[in-house]
Specification:
One of its GO terms (molecular function) is electron transfer activity. By secondary structure, the protein is α/β, with parallel strands linked by helices. The chain has one domain: Rossmann fold, CATH 3.40.50. The protein has seven helices and eleven strands. Helix 2 (about 75-85) packs across helix 5.
Length: about 270
């Protein structure tokens, strides 16, 4: 897809419904996954992505034409979309899957997002999404989407600046040696790091307004994509519990204890 010729930005923000970050994760009795009968909320990195899209509109004013959010998930994922709409997004797309269906893998999500982008009536100029989801920690969707679209990508962004006239973006990202600034042409895929911004709380008036904003419902079949996982989870177990340590009075006693534990080659 070619970038639009106008100096207006159409932004797409993928979001994910995940177990709330404050919930203590527990394995379900069947050991097929984690217990999902707990509080869910928007993936924190995706909240940052929504916030950045809204801030771009505040900085660039009328240069941002639309902010659309999209999610893949069961019916309850509509709550996540409403949160994004209350934060300032204009409209949403819900790719609904059955409650019993496993969470799609990054490649399936990237293919679905490509299909969403291709079916938009206006070209998408910028996709902003979290660098990873806190449930699977894959950190692959943004990169895969950039590869499928043939677009530029800037991952782990801590600062984003866009020149709508030149259709370029400067993206600052943290690397081992300090900061790196990438200059990218639009259309562009950006994945967000924690230091990009701090998401706002949706106000009550905006929450009420969000109820009237449109949510388009689609299925994987509508998009012509297969969201069935390519990997099979055989078993999920909790890590072994840590046992208490012990104290020794001398180095020789420490070496003896290590030898009892099967650690050899240690000398006093």
């Amino acid at each position: 897809m070619r970038p639009s010729s106008a100096c207006l930005l159409n932004i797409l923000v993928p979001v994910k419904r995940a177990v709330d970050y404050a919930v203590k994760i527990r394995v379900n009795p069947q050991q097929t996954g984690i217990d999902l009968n707990v509080k869910h909320s928007m993936n924190p990195f995706d909240e940052i992505a929504v916030e950045e899209a809204v801030r771009l509109r505040e900085r660039l004013k009328e240069k941002v034409k639309s902010i659309k959010v999209v999610t893949i998930g069961p019916a309850k994922s509509a709550e996540t979309l409403r949160t994004a709409l209350a934060m300032g997004a204009d409209s949403a797309i819900h790719i609904e899957i059955p409650d019993s269906a496993p969470s799609p893998e990054p490649l399936g999500v990237a293919k679905a997002l490509r299909a969403v982008i291709d079916r938009q009536s206006e070209d998408v100029d910028l996709v902003i999404l979290g660098k990873q989801a806190i449930d699977d920690d894959s950190g692959q969707t943004g990169q895969m989407l950039a590869g499928l679209m043939g677009w530029a990508q800037a991952t782990f962004a801590s600062k984003l600046e866009i020149d709508t006239e030149k259709k370029v973006a400067n993206v600052t990202r943290e690397i081992d040696g300090g900061l790196e600034v990438l200059r990218c042409k639009l259309p562009l895929i950006v994945t967000t790091d924690l230091r990009l911004n701090e998401p706002r709380y949706a106000s009550l008036p905006n929450i009420m307004k969000a109820k009237k904003k449109p949510i388009e419902k689609l299925s994987a079949e509508d998009l012509g994509v297969d969201l069935r996982p390519r990997l099979e989870t055989l078993k999920v177990t909790e890590p072994p519990k840590r046992v208490g340590g012990g104290k020794v009075d001398t180095v020789d006693e420490l070496v003896a204890k290590l030898a009892e534990a099967g650690i050899t080659g240690v000398k006093a």
